[in-house]
Design a protein that fits this description.
Blueprint lengths: L6 E10 L12 E12 L2 E7 H6 L6 E12 L1 E7 L13 H14 L4 H17 L2 E7 L4 H14 L3 E4 L1 E2 L12 H15 L5 E7 L7 H13 L4 E6 L3 H10 L6 H7 L7 E5 L5 H10 L2 E4 L1 H6 L7 H6 L4 E3 L11 H13 L7 H15 L17 E4 L5 H7 L5 H11 L5 E6 L2 E2 L4
Parallel strand pairs: 1-4, 5-6, 6-7, 7-9, 8-9, 9-10, 10-11, 11-12, 12-13
Antiparallel strand pairs: 1-2, 2-3, 4-14, 14-15, 15-16
The chain binds guanine and zinc ion (ZN).
């Protein structure tokens, strides 16, 4: 539950107001060397220099001094799989074998609500240990798993997005729903959870291979009925996946054409991977406002390919970054930014650390159309905040001896940091990092 008591957090504040165009774009971010955030009722009430904010704060307000650490908006992970907590680090071949050999067997266990409840506790403890305060998850195909996922988020007061995976073919019987049951179960879950405190429901057809045309039509009908909901699926991750999709949907213009034909695209559609895109697909993504989600550790681990940020954004498409646990190999958004940086380095697209920290905070919030609530530290938004220590480990402390600028510090955090750099994670104003 949210912590309603007022608190004054003191530390070095960093947040973004837009995407930094480069290292010298000081208009894109706000940095306060001795700053403070006044938080109350789960919201940020005031932000600014400590002296100013403290002067306007009622006497007796609890004050927490995080100096010399950095306070940034809580990290946002825009794509991961809740039932893959025990799939991560499985020695598998590429995507389709990995799904069949490890992922589908593990997801079957979520038929048991008690299993989902137990995994949810570990899942949220891990997210918060890593400073991730909002995430967008695929649950399993069992409605139970969605309840387990949102119940535990609700207990912790977290803003989480997620939904029941819709899948009615090319998977084990025990995981398959039908077009009708996926529609009615998703609708019931959506009615139950969407807008319940901080929960957001996401309509979740897994990908073209595991849905019949009838099921994709049902997903499209749901999106039409509930345009306020997000929709998530996967696309153009792996060459064998693309070839199989072509066999299953021979009349579609291309892979994106399948989703386009069923009305699944729009400003709240999150498309995982988007690695092997043709120009038509990029054009349709731009026209529909659909979001491309980059999952670097997963793309490397499954040998899927290199996401081309420059080409995607150059085509006018909004991008987001994510872990994709359990194809992804680390829950930390710092580790994810580091691997993303390397994927882009291989393509001569070198990202500045201001851009990467923007990406995992305000950038991801904007991609989710949630920047009025999270991602910025702006007064009036939710008090989801992460406190970072750039000297958390010996190699970091040694490297920091020679760091002179904020950008250098951010790059040390990104390149060497992980959960050990996360000092605290505030969820709606409540200190929530598991001990
Ligand atoms: N495509 C369909 N399902 C999945 C999944 O669970 N993980 C990844 N990485 N790709 C997928
Ligand atoms: Zn995924």
């Amino acid at each position: 539950m949210a912590d309603t008591s007022a608190k004054l957090l003191r530390g070095r504040l960093l947040s973004f107001s837009s995407a930094p165009k480069g290292p010298d774009d000081t208009d894109a971010y706000l940095y306060e060397e001795d700053g403070a955030l006044l938080i109350s009722d789960g919201k940020i009430v005031a932000r600014g220099p400590y002296a100013d904010i403290a002067a306007g704060t009622p006497g007796g307000t609890e004050e927490i001094d995080h100096r010399p650490h950095l306070l940034v908006p809580g990290f946002i992970d825009t794509h991961l799989h809740f039932p893959q907590v025990q799939v991560i680090a499985s020695w598998a071949d590429q995507l389709l074998d990995w799904l069949n050999d490890y992922t589908f067997p593990a997801e079957q266990k979520f038929a048991d609500k008690a299993h989902g409840d137990r995994i949810a506790k570990g899942f949220y403890d891990t997210l918060l240990s890593n400073g991730t305060t909002t995430a967008v998850a695929y649950c399993s195909s069992h409605p139970n798993s969605v309840d387990a996922y949102f119940e535990e988020a609700d207990r912790r007061g977290m803003l989480m997005l997620g939904g029941k995976t819709m899948m009615d073919r090319n998977a084990p019987e025990a995981l398959c729903d039908t077009a009708d049951s996926a529609y009615s179960d998703s609708k019931a879950l959506l009615e139950k959870w969407h807008g319940a405190r901080r929960a957001h429901y996401v309509i979740t057809p897994r990908f073209a291979i595991t849905s019949t045309p009838e099921q994709l039509e049902a997903a499209g009908a749901l999106l039409k009925e509930y345009p306020d909901c997000h929709l998530q699926t996967h696309i153009n991750e792996n060459h064998n996946e693309i070839a199989f999709t072509k066999e299953l949907f021979p009349d579609a213009a291309d892979y994106l054409g399948v989703y386009e034909d069923f009305g699944l695209l729009g400003g709240k559609t999150l498309l995982g991977h988007c690695i092997h895109m043709n120009d038509r697909e990029l054009g349709v993504m731009r026209e529909t406002g659909s979001v491309a989600v980059f999952c670097p550790t997963s793309n490397l681990f499954l040998g899927s390919g290199l996401f081309d940020k420059k080409r995607t954004e150059g085509a006018g498409i909004k991008t987001a970054i994510a872990t994709d646990i359990g194809g992804g190999t680390n829950y930390s958004m710092l580790r994810t930014l580091d691997e993303g940086y390397k994927v882009l380095q291989l393509q001569r697209q070198r990202l500045h650390p201001l851009e990467t920290f923007y990406w995992t905070t305000l950038g991801n919030a904007e991609a989710l159309s949630l920047s009025d609530r999270i991602g910025s530290l702006d007064p009036g938004t939710d008090a989801d905040i992460v406190v970072l220590d750039a000297k958390a480990t010996r190699p970091m402390a040694l490297r920091m001896e020679t760091a002179e600028t904020l950008s250098e510090e951010l790059f040390v955090l990104q390149t060497l940091g992980d959960d050990r750099s996360v000092v605290e994670a505030y969820v709606a104003g409540k200190a929530s990092k598991p001990v």
